[in-house]
Amino acid sequence: MQIRVDERVARCLALMRTPEMQPLVEFLKSRRQETLERLGEATGEEMKSRLQGRNLELKEFLEMVDQAETLIAKTRR
Fold first, then answer.
1. Tell me: the pLDDT tens digits for 68-77?
2. pLDDT score of 1 more than 80
3. Predicted model pTM
């Protein structure tokens, strides 16, 4: 799923790649890993659904951070 963002948001995502923001990015990556581990252990369908949703949100956000420069370029077209 491709999420569209405007230039201001894309620039904020690019700021997430600065050294000052790396602790937050690492925290979000660890939260995603924890979520995946919990998903593997989950038994109830409702809990699995919640964890899948959380995982997807974290995954998409981290991907947007990684692709921030490309997103900025796309907003200029």
1. 999 999 888 7
2. no
3. 0.88
- Helix axes of 68-75 and 45-66: crossing angle, nearest 10 degrees: 70
Name the token pair of 45. Answer: 């369908």
What's the distance, Cα to Cα, between the start and end of the chain in Å? Answer: 20
SS3 5: coil
- The CA–CA distances, whole Å, from 19 to 27, 34, 35, 39, 57 equal 14, 23, 25, 31, 23
Helix or strand (DSSP H, E) at 20: none
